[in-house]
User: Which sequence fits this backbone?
């Protein structure tokens, strides 16, 4: 596991730490020949941020280790992943492009996209069905002069399933203040500097987490996002693995480890049912079914396996 004790701070101390043989070997195990370039990029990020230079170097390391295990560069200009300082620690934050890239890697998505929504582009919104009719302004220069009123995420899976998720600008502002104490109290951080990107990330993340099949990498990314990572085993392929995290910028809405474990167990059982090849294999989870959705999926799978015998 990648659990370390408190260590000195400062760019020189961080540089010495990350270039030590034991730490470099960790990144080389994950990234191979790309490890040196990743460490150089990490040091550049730290060097350009005075608060990161003062942050606990172990939290910098574990945040970077998460990004490396997801094979996401931490160059802020790419919008894939960030390392963000908060109260002497370094948080891992996934950018909206990072969420989209992880989704695309799963091989289950035909398309995935997000966009801002301008005044006049919503024709109707059915509150009961949740469906929204959009009429997009096809004049680029005219569109840029219109006020942004919200953001929307859309994806379509290879099996034909589609999902659209929309939030107004006011809802996103409220979301930012709820889930970032730094933004709520001081009006600082990524929500101030990159409101567009954070809004796109939010609708994308919520659409995927609520409606899409999640890969192991997506599950890990959702747990680690906006957290200080205290302990993490990047080699584990167990979908029920619990990453030890601390949501320092959002104490009152932290996801506790017990809840994460329950969610992981639910996902594990669902995937076991879906992937079962034999009745005996399916029956291994019969006594672990959690709710009616599990029971219905179990019975449907059992019927399918009996029919295919």
Assistant:
């Amino acid at each position: 596991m990648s659990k370390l004790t408190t260590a000195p701070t400062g760019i020189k101390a961080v540089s010495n730490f990350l270039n030590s043989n034991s730490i470099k070997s960790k990144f080389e195990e994950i990234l191979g020949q790309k490890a040196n370039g990743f460490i150089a990029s990490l040091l550049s990020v730290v060097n350009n941020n005075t608060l990161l230079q003062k942050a606990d170097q172990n939290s910098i390391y574990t945040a970077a280790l998460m990004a490396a295990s997801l094979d996401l560069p931490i160059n802020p200009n790419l919008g894939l992943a960030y390392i963000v300082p908060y109260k002497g620690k370094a948080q891992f934050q996934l950018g909206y492009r990072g969420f989209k890239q992880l989704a695309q890697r799963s091989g289950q998505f035909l398309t995935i996209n997000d966009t801002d929504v301008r005044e006049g582009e919503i024709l109707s919104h059915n509150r009961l069905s949740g469906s929204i009719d959009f009429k997009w302004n096809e004049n680029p220069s005219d569109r840029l002069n219109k006020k942004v009123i919200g953001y929307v995420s859309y994806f379509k899976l290879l099996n034909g399933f589609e999902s659209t998720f929309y939030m107004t600008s006011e809802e996103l502002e409220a979301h930012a203040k709820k889930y970032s104490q730094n933004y709520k109290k001081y009006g600082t951080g990524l929500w101030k500097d990159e409101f567009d990107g954070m809004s796109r990330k939010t609708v994308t993340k919520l659409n995927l987490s609520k409606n899409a099949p999640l890969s192991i990498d997506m599950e890990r990314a959702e747990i680690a996002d906006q957290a200080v990572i205290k302990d993490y085993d990047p080699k584990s392929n167990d979908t029920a693995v619990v990453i030890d995290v601390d949501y320092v910028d959002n104490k009152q809405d932290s996801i506790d480890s017990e809840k994460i474990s329950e969610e992981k167990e639910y996902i594990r059982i669902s995937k076991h049912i879906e992937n079962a090849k034999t009745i005996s294999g399916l029956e291994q989870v019969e006594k672990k079914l959690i709710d009616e959705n599990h029971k219905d999926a179990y019975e449907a799978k059992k019927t399918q396996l009996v029919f295919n015998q």
Summary: The chain has three domains: 11-91, 96-223+235-255, 262-308. The beta strands are 81-86, 89-94, 109-118, 122-125, 132-134, 148-157, 162-168, 228-231, 244-246.
